[in-house]
Amino acid sequence: MAALPANEVGIGWGDARSASQRIFAVDDNVFARHSNAREDDEEALKWVALEKLPTFDRLRRGFLQTVNEDGKLIQEEVDIKKLSFAEKSQLVEKILRVIEDDNERFLQKLRERIDNVGIDLPKIEVRFEDLNVEADVHVGSRALPTLYNFLINLVEGLSSFVVPAKKHRLHILKNLSGIIKPTRMTLLLGPPSSGKTTLLLALAGKLPPDLRVSGKVSYNGHEMKDFVPQRTSAYISQHDVQLAELTVRETLDFCGRCQGVGTRYDMLLELSRREKAAGIKPDHDIDVFMKAVALEGQETSIVTDYVLKILGLDICTDTLIGDQMRRGISGGQRKRVTTGEMLVGPAKALFMDEISTGLDSSTTFQIVKCLRQIVHVMDASMLVSLLQPAPETFELFDDVILLSEGQIVYQGPRELVLDYFTSMGFKCPERKSAADFLQEVISRKDQAQFWADQSQPHRYISAAEFSEAFKSFYLGEKLQEELSVPFDRSRSHPAALSTKRFGLQRRALLKACFAREWLLMKRNSFLHIFKTCQVTTVTLIAMTVFLRTELHQNSVADGNLYVGALFFGLVLIMFNGFSEMAIVVSRLPVFYKQREQLFYPAWSYSLPTIIIRLPLSLLESLIWVCLTYYVIGFTPEPSRFFRQLLVLFCISQMASGLFRFLGSVGRSMIIASTFGSFALMIVFVLGGFVISKDRIHKWWIWAYWVSPVMYGQNSLVINEFLADRWNKPYNGSIDANTIGTAVLKSRGFFTEEHWYWICIGALIGFAILFNALFTLALTYLNPLSKPQAILASQDSKDSKGSSKGIELSTSAHSSNGAASESKEKGSNVPSSDFKGTEITVTDQKRGMVLPFQPLSIAFNSINYYVDMPIEMKRQGIMEEKLQLLQDVSGAFRPGVLTALVGVSGAGKTTLMDVLAGRKTGGYIEGSISISGFPKKQETFSRISGYCEQNDIHSPNVTIVESLVFSAWLRLPKEVDKTTRVMFVEEVMELVELTPIKDALVGLPGVNGLSTEQRKRLTIAVELVANPSIIFMDEPTSGLDARAAAIVMRTVRNTVDTGRTVVCTIHQPSIDIFEAFDELLLLKRGGQAIYAGPLGIHSCHLIEYFEGIQGVQPIKDGYNPATWMLDISSPSAEARLNVDFAEIYRNSSVYQKNQALVKELSVPTPGSTELSFATKYSQNFLEQCWACLWKQHWSYWRNPYYNAVRLLFTAAIGFLFGTIFWNLGHKLDTVQDVFNLIGAIYSATLFLGFSNASTVEPVVGIERTVFYRERGAGMYSALPYAFAQAAIEVPYVFVQTLIYVIFVFSMINFPWTAVKFFYFFFFMFFTFLYFTYYGMMSVAITPNVHFAAIISSAFFTFWNLFSGFIIPRKNIPIWWRWYSWADPIQWSIYGIIASQLGDIETIVQDPDAVGTQKYVKQFIKDILGYDHDFLGVVAVVHLGLTVIFLFVFAYGIKKLNFQRR
């Protein structure tokens, strides 16, 4: 089933409800029994028979009532364990037919059955006393992750054992004491950074170990060490972390299966025993349900169906969770899945962190209502943190904890919270939500407006003063009295606290993890098929490169070609397991979450991963061996065929274990791939092929013996070269009797047959070791910390500033007379009132300091179509196009704030995208005019701003830099730098960003700004462009009430300067909704049902809808926005049998709207069409300079990319220098030359690949920002491409310098200026073209994941044709052309020819006794490297760099993978 948006839940429930009524045509009371005597007798007899069964069987049998084909009610005995999926779903549908009414009645029935036999339910009282939590942090610029700070942190970390790091102490929670009582649902409120999440984690026993904690947390008087808190309580995170490949049901089923049934089975056992003794006959449906939920280890549980129902997820049960690669459920539905993951478990204490983000208020109300019923009826303990609880949702809670600055301001009954603040001198306004009031009254800037005692001047009361005052308030004193009396442990139910570490037995946990891993493997079948196809393709190419007709067995040189073929097979099979690292890293967040909740031990997670991959490893090994063994011409003996297969299978297992281990230790792809590459470099280079054993220095010989590649390579060559066909007599310079032995000795391989089995044993040992280390890493390592930029507090001047109110009713913006008049009368605001006006800064009202031209936008009969989705065509829909907007008309004017409202799927964002010209596909009909002239997108982007719902910004620049960059490229070039800076500062003041202007933006959910700060930055970035028209998509989504008020105050201030502002809004509070002047309301399907003024207290809107027959009048104090959406919902339309769109089209409001559209679609006399001399406000060079400026700061503050890259290069350079020490002066044999080529080959391969792979995510993030900035008309694609490419040059230069200094000096190449220059030149351009190749691969692919797959596929071919595995002269003629197109081949060519092309040292040829060759002659005749060709090689390096750069720029310019 396709995923539906969160606010379509009402429809889904309605459809399910009607279906349920058709299936179960029974009495309205689903718990009523039939009175027919005969049926009662039969039922009684069946129950008596059931009662006679042994207890074990009795708890697995029950009676299920269903309707047969004839419509008759039948009752059949069922095996609970064998209940089908359909039967479970039908039972839940039956008992929860109308979720709003039936859930509480159902829970009451459960409770009545338990109470009837005198069983007490376990209860948990959570107490916290003097709880303090502290952290050590950097403040100010020291917290920014610059390269300098990164290095300082590294030094401090290494020296912390001797000298402690200099950090500031941050108090997160300060002396908190309180009680979370059972059967009472508590709401946790507080502004951002008040410590809500920390408190929830502390109560759930999940605080990170790096925090300092003091105080006491107890459950029923027991401290945390007395029981297992992870099994007793459940923490529901605000971050949604799920496996994208699983459906909603599969996710919840697995969570429920792992958490077990707790004490449900034991309670049911006792319940059944007592009922039997008392002769009580339970309700059949309740009996079946309770027996079903008490069965542990079920693959799919009825609990899942129940939770899906109460969370409104039953409409997307079989939809994938999804991610950026897979289409899945909506954000609001993901949030509900996160909640459901813990609700399916048996925990009795629940701590929920911001569970309503992304949900509309009606859905939130329904979920909280169901949670309240669970708490009240089933005696649960629950603490819930919410961002913007609507008044009706707030009323559902029993208690409230108000937190500010880490201190409790209030804790007690909800209904008394306003009394406390009244006693402190503050009063909540009549039309103000209590929850909003509570969060604003503790804010410095908003407190004054609530001061009630006008006889005395207001004085700011801080959180600390509120906290102290509460202790002397009668509720605070009562709380202290309760805490002073210890909890009586004897009152604690024996089953309340869990002492078992896991919910299932080991075998059951392993079975559950196996089932999930198998499912994930099937869902990722494309990846495994792709890998298999890739292996097959590369194998087919390799066997035509090493074709048997081109290979012989007559010399050591012939043998070296076979060694190369075997080595390539080893590399192919080994590095095909590289995807294991990416899979492990991508799943670690889910694993850590479930490990912390004690779903399963690490070994039960790792074992299925290891075992299920075995067949794939065998298949890949079989493909290589079966396809190449005969075609390449390896020894034609069956035993040696299977022995080679065994080796490759062992290598595959070893490699998979190694990559899993590296992924689990690295824990992020950048760290895992970087440091993983370092480890791989050692085992790869010292494996016996790149450098022979006899040339490995004594200080590195240990690494040779611990390299698994060495054992794999030796077993392969021993299997081949000790065969009879290589026993030909040998007469060369090596001490050997046969050619086979000579080949082995020339490379330093073992020459005895028994070493084959020793190597096999070693490979198996390594496979076991790496997988064991993988399991240990999963067991003991924790997720990488997410650094947040902690800045110093505001200075005294800022903190003493005037405190303006956030009251967003008409009084808040009464200064704009025209807007207020428009709101009251619904009249047009004449644009001439604003024309040419320059709004300046005053003490009374902040405004914009630059002149602008007020503009209106009118649109008539807008229709928008997209091609019919394939999924809908499969359902039988025959139309070719799907219409998303239908005849929408309206007008937006200067100085008027317009709300664009509708349920999800109504087309709000679609309409905004169409009007702003941001759509990249689809078909648009209708007319759009700007101040009477037809809209032209080229000029429109210059005078408009678009604040997207997803706050997209470059993560590694500060707030002020983001704004300066936007102003630089969007303000007219006539505006000088000084004015520009002043304007940016004014905008920062307007949106209240000045105190944090130097904070790093960061990535959402990872580091940097909070959601609310990021939202204000999005608005500010558009405001600094000085636009006349601003579109804002969901500016308050995901914000708490206080943050939403700040954002709306920013929006209101912007409108008051005379700009045209349009906002889409989901379900706003009363304050926010009534800050708007006009409304455009859409219903699902993209049809307008109201367009006009709101009026004071929404009077015009209310008057219009109350005039429609059958619409229920609004209740006093009710939110007009909520009422409007409720009475115009599809279910309301169906109930009233009306079409609100049709009613609107026949109304006087529509006629007025059309008249206004007509008026604004005609230019005013004397006006001229908007036009600009150039497409962009700045010239090409200025765009380049601005983009380069931003990229400079982005790179300087990205140590995980640049610092790690430089450190990695230094480590590799030092490593190579010590491995190939003085090799440049020890060229005695041909093998020495090959060793030197191997050094260059390895460096090019690993460092080049590392550069390409690590730049991909960096460019991927910046490309997303580029799409937004290009859409805003800031710059063309070429300046961006130039800046992205140019900023790499200095970093690659430093990287090359570090590498060359180490390697050139330690390998001891001849010290001449020319050779040093050549070495530097070729390495520099090698690193550079690899980096540009990585950038190019991102530019031409939809996402980073796809880019990584494509680039790695080409790397395999580059490796094969590099000239090291098989020299170019030995490559068959039909493939030799590709070697000339291979970048790595040119890099090796340049370095080897420049360093050895003129060396006249004599080297010994192993195939000829007495035959001597100069080095330069050998590399020219045998390898094809000509010193005289260096000029051409240098030009090719430049050409490769330019080609990759050109394709990158072309891809950025021409390809747009953004789908809107």
Task: Give an overview in words.
Helix 24 packs antiparallel against helix 31 (754-780) and helix 49 (1230-1271) packs antiparallel against helix 53 (1344-1360). Strand 11 (399-404) and strand 12 form a beta hairpin. The protein is built from 57 helices and 24 strands. Mean pLDDT is 84; it is low at 1-36 and 792-847. The chain is 52% helix and 10% strand. By secondary structure, the chain is α/β, with parallel strands linked by helices. The protein has 5 domains: 1-120 and 268-295, no CATH class; 126-242 and 350-487, 3-Layer(aba) Sandwich (Rossmann fold), CATH 3.40.50.300; 506-515 and 525-780, no CATH class; 859-1160, 3-Layer(aba) Sandwich (Rossmann fold), CATH 3.40.50; 1180-1454, no CATH class.
What secondary-structure arrangement, pairings included, does this model have?
Layout (H helix, E strand, L loop, with lengths): L8 H15 L13 H15 L3 H4 L2 E7 L5 E7 L5 H11 L3 H18 L9 E12 L9 H13 L8 E13 L4 E5 L6 H9 L7 E8 L2 E2 L5 H4 E4 L11 H12 L4 H15 L5 H10 L8 H9 L20 H13 L5 E5 L7 H18 L2 E5 L5 H4 L4 E6 L2 E7 L3 H7 L10 H8 L21 H10 L1 H11 L21 H18 L1 H21 L10 H20 L3 H18 L5 H11 L1 H20 L4 H29 L2 H17 L15 H5 L2 H14 L17 H8 L7 H27 L15 H4 L17 H9 L31 E11 L2 H5 L6 E12 L4 E5 L6 H9 L6 E8 L2 E2 L2 H7 E4 L11 H12 L6 H14 L20 H13 L5 E5 L7 H16 L3 E6 L4 H4 L4 E6 L3 E7 L5 H8 L13 H8 L2 H7 L3 H6 L2 H13 L19 H17 L5 H18 L10 H42 L5 H10 L1 H20 L5 H27 L4 H17 L12 H8 L2 H14 L5 E3 L7 E3 H7 ...
Parallel strand pairs: 5-10, 5-11, 8-9, 9-10, 15-20, 15-21, 18-19, 19-20
Antiparallel strand pairs: 1-2, 3-4, 3-6, 6-7, 11-12, 13-14, 13-16, 16-17, 21-22, 23-24
